[in-house]
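Record 1 of the preview.
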Amino acid sequence: MGDVSEQQPKKSDHRSRPTSEAFKQFIAGGWAPRPSELPGRAEVAPYAANRRQQMSSAHPGERIVVPAGGLKVRSNDTDFVFRPHSAFSYLTGLGADREPDAVLVLEPRDGGGHDAVLYFRPRAGRDTEEFYADARYGELWVGVRPSLEEIEAELDLICRHIDELPDAISKDVGRVGLRVVRDADPDVTALVDEARAQVEGVDAAAAVERDDELAVTLSEMRLVKDEWEIEQMRLACAATAEGFAAIARSLADAVAKGRGERWVEGQFGLVARHSGNGVGYDSIVASGDHACTLHWIRNDGDVRDGDLLLVDAGVEVDSLYTADVTRTMPVNGRFSEVQRRVYQAVLDAQEAGIAAVKPGNTFKDVHAAAIRVIAERLAEWGLLPVDVETTLGDEGGYHRRWMVHGTSHHLGIDVHDCAQARREEYMEGELRPGMVLTVEPGLYFKADDASIPSELRGIGVRIEDDVLVTADGCENLSAALPRTPDDVEAWLADLRG
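->
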């Protein structure tokens, strides 16, 4: 085989760029001066500094490399909207679409602790070709990029040009330990691996294990939210409630226009994009039997009078913290008798799960409380071949046919936050004030399930709220949205007029 790079198809450059010296001189002049005043310190800056201090204490004397990541190709030469890696955002405070290709380096100091240095590409002068010709960084293409001094003032850390990064990574490697968030940016990870390879005797596999340990540290740091994070979660939940209200107001249109799941998705997305960065994950908009597909994100079905509509959606605010809320509502505004019965069973399970969210309990206690109610209701309805205790035992699980998923997950800057945390800190971990969890039981009776009465088939219900652990219990951050069947019907009637 020849060089792989030689076998890749070459892309033609069809952009037309002016190249004359006369143009370069003309475009460089005639601009108003840039503002000289530096931005004030961001509200998040001291909180991000505290997080970096925790990281410094966890890995003393080591160089920690945390990339923001780069743009990701959607198709051909078009990219997705940029979202920085969550670890980068957590440690810097930069959210929304800032700053592609940036890298945070925690550089160990001789006397202990670390200096936080942010490497990124600042804006170029108007007399440079980058200003008008670079579609990735140029001001005329992507807007005004910040200067080094502006980011230093905003985030209260040291800033350097991204061109200095390779030397910063390789400096004193072998004498100084080196860790990187491996999944954030493959190019930066390659730089780190190349630097390590220059040191004789370095065990590459052991180095990757140390990187994995870094990911665990970052996940476990996020288990308990600080005051600023909790306020961001409140904002996300409030905006999400507005999005659900927009859905309720649009149900008649969703029925009338056809392909109503897409219409509902659009109504929520409009609110999410207007009030925040967008949605925190692909919205699930599932009418009728589609609600029995847990991750139904095609959202291409009709919304029909008489159906239940399950919507699982969350606004991601500009800081990248996201809500994650599910409501199941009758499209015509009124639950049928059997719909109400299933809905009430799920609500009872959720109430039991929420009651278990308190300091001293473990994360898995929330699921245990909710799933017991699910099993009890299924047994009452004659759907289980065994009794409740047997199905809840290790050799049972029959009830999970109709609720195969877990009841909770941590929530924050990722919708499934803290995903690299160790099992003993997550599933077995004790709940502590400042943790934010979802509580989301459900029942899903698929239309082709021949083991159940026909009246249940095609009914899917999930109710999900975002719950903050407090000193003496919990607070439902998404309580602005109704949950009881009577309150849901009254809410729909009010919003639909």
